[in-house]
From TrEMBL:
Coiled coil: none annotated. It holds the Pfam family LrgA. It comes from the Bacteria. PANTHER family: HOLIN-LIKE PROTEIN CIDA, HOLIN-LIKE PROTEIN CIDA-RELATED. The lineage of its organism: Bacteria, Bacillati, Bacillota, Clostridia, Lachnospirales. The keyword Transport does not apply. One of its GO terms (cellular component) is plasma membrane. It comes from Candidatus Cellulosilyticum pullistercoris. It is a multi-pass membrane protein. It is found in: Cell membrane. This is CidA/LrgA family protein. Keywords: Cell membrane, Membrane, Transmembrane, Transmembrane helix. The chain crosses the membrane at residues 7-24, 30-46, 58-75, 81-102.
């Protein structure tokens, strides 16, 4: 019964995100609205973490299964993708390296900033 309630909460947030997408005429996917809604609800404790924790863990565990239909779709579209395969692979590699570099630099910056705040707090 606990899982049904937790999935119900997640489905309610998903439904609300679809409603937002329908009424707000921006080119933003409903899933992004859902992520923002869930983040705000969890941060403001409108939805306590314990209310969705186990269902969230379950969904993360089965996430690899969700990529199977996309992979089959790629295999089905191989004829269209074959001529542009090399450029797509190069763009994927370059953008992945770029994201890794920027993420690493930002993480280092935040760690240094936190360390500096911590050190200044101990001095006083």
């Amino acid at each position: 019964m606990k899982f049904i309630r937790q999935f119900g909460i997640i489905l309610l947030v998903t439904f609300l995100s679809e409603v937002l997408k329908y009424y707000i005429p921006l080119q933003i996917p409903a899933s992004i609205y859902g992520l923002v809604l869930m983040l705000v609800a969890l941060k403001t404790r409108i939805i306590p973490l314990e209310a969705v924790k186990e269902a969230g863990k379950f969904l993360i565990e089965i996430m690899p299964l969700m990529f199977i239909p996309a992979a089959v779709g790629l295999m089905d579209s191989w004829g269209i993708l074959k001529p542009i395969c090399v450029p797509v692979i190069m763009i994927t590699i370059i953008s992945t390296i770029g994201v890794m570099v920027v993420s690493g630099r930002m993480t280092q910056f935040v760690i240094r900033l936190e360390k500096r705040k911590h050190d200044e707090g101990n001095v006083m």
